[in-house]
Write the structure tokens for this entry.
Amino acid sequence: MKHIPFALALFAAFPAPLAADQQNIIAERVWSRASMGENRPGVAYMELHNTGSGTRTLTGVETGRAAMAQIHQTSTSASGVSQMAPAGDIDILPGTRIALEPGGLHIMLMQLDRPLAEGEYYHLTLIFKNGDNVEIRVPVLAASARGPGQ
Amino acid sequence: MISRRAFAAYLAGGAAVASALLLPGWWQISGPGAAPPLPRLPLPLGEMSFSMQDHTGAEVSPQGLVGKPSLVFFGYTFCPDVCPTTLSDISTWLSGLGADAARLNAVFITVDPGRDTLPAMAQYMQHFHPAISGWRGSLAETDKAVAGFRASYTLGEGAEGEGADYAVEHTSSVFLFKADGRLAALIDLHEDRAQAVAKIQRVLQR
């Protein structure tokens, strides 16, 4: 049953003018998990495709929903211990895409104004080094979602 | 002054020679040339010693898991990325096993009992497969559990503060135990679903 609203959500989430700005960064497979309680952090995932001819450098993110939003990288050591750290600037070479996905790069939203509720949307601004920021609309899926189609 | 400078030069030279001699040894024994250390295996569940409560408030212990194969992993409910991903993976594996899921224990143990109170655990577990049990103990019992599994965790910066916003670094592999309580396999974060389910099915067939 969750698939149908999500399919609709996809259409709603990527109207052409929002998805592809002049600088040719396209955000696909954008999703977020519902968060719980007042102070648990939220998370957002997506794929960013650079269809332009120059490298774009993602330096940060912003949203009105969180006092602090950062791009983090989860890494897992040889002994199986996982940790998260700020990812720093991310270069997206022309013609390539980077994936922000579970267990890897992700956008961490700290100090949310209120929990992210399943079924809602929020806006997120991707900040690029050249100043051409990209605004995207993020659908909030279930707390147990594992990917954009679930 | 001169003699002191000469002495310093002598020391520096000696240190350089010692490094040149020791470096190749270091490189092979503990440096990047070394084979990665084998993770130490957890104790059998029956030999571990800790007591906790599950998210319904019932008293639980590792001995109570012996008799059925078990999936056990560590995490915390404020974890935005790895823990919901793992819980959701385990939920999918359990759903994929159908009726066989009832022949298995599945346990999530919090390494952040300070923020993960029993009500928080109860609320969190609602979002995942109902067969997964969320365990919480005192800090001392948590440490005993982590030691028994040969796992590790480190509370991040800010953990001392009030209502703090901190992350916890922790072992993220899922431990799969045989019905007799001995370890059968580890399932890593990025392992694909088919491989994970196959490992579980092998243990269920024994």
